[in-house]
Structures are given as C-alpha cells and as structure tokens.
Design goal:
Elements: E1 3-8, E2 15-20, E3 26-29, H1 32-37, E4 40-44, E5 49-53, E6 81-84, E7 94-98, H2 107-112, E8 115-118
Parallel strand pairs: 3-8
Antiparallel strand pairs: 1-2, 2-5, 3-4, 4-7, 6-7
C-alpha cells in the first residue's frame, strides 16, 4: 500500500514528497557510484513524485524542464533523488529516491522492506553480488 513520505536534503533547501510502497522493495548496488555514495534507493514513477522546492539548488538542475532534476545539493552535498530515463534495465522513466533523506520514514519500516542487491560493478544488474554485507 502506498504511503506519502516527505524528504529533504540535510540543509532542507531541497524538499519533496513521494508516494511509495516500501513493500515493493529497495535497492543496493555495488557499482562504484552507489558504493561510494552509500546510495540505498527505492524508485517510483514520476507521477508519484512531487518537488516542493529547491530544484535550482541541485547540481543537475535543468532550468525550464519539469523533469530531469537530480544531483547533489550545492549547499550540504546530500543527494536526495535523481530522475532516471527509460533504459533496457528498467520499466520506463523513474525517480530514484535516496531512502536516507525521507524525513518521516520509521527505521522499522525500512528494515522490513525487501532489499534487492545488484552487481553493478560487473554490469550484471539482475544478479546479486557474492558479497553484500558492505552495502
């Protein structure tokens, strides 16, 4: 069942709300980007995501575009979300949400959510890596 969560970067200049069902799972990947950024995510369709402000503070802000924002906050460095274009490995445009920035997420809800591990380091996205404890 979908629930509305509110999220923000550390300095709260970037804010959003998102409707998501954590029972659909979260993702952890071992590619160098995800590993170095501790990027633990869940993703939603763009219509389930609403920016409440601060898009211009994001490093990948695209002025004049309704979608495509993402990157890190220019003030605090947090990475709250990123728009992901349709690709052969997904089911269409998505918004990847950093679960760590969901302000009203109860840790018990996160711990109960399924986690899918991806071996991005070997470009084997559909198979979990042999070791996941560090993710």
């Amino acid at each position: 069942m979908k629930k509305t969560y509110h999220g923000s970067c550390h300095c709260r200049r970037v804010t959003f709300e998102v409707d998501l069902d954590l029972n659909e799972g979260t993702t952890k990947c071992n590619c160098t980007y995800c590993w170095k950024n501790r990027w633990w995510t869940t993703s939603v369709k763009p219509e389930d995501f609403r920016s409440l402000g601060g898009e211009a503070e994001l490093s990948a802000h695209r002025p004049g575009q309704a979608q495509g924002h993402g990157g890190f906050c220019r003030h605090c460095g947090s990475r709250p979300y990123a728009f992901v274009e349709k690709a052969d490995w997904n089911d269409g445009e998505r918004v990847s949400i950093n679960v760590a920035v969901l302000d009203d997420l109860d840790p018990a809800e996160l711990l109960a959510a399924p986690v899918r591990f991806c071996d991005g380091r070997a470009d084997n996205w559909w198979v979990a890596p042999a070791e996941t404890r560090h993710l």
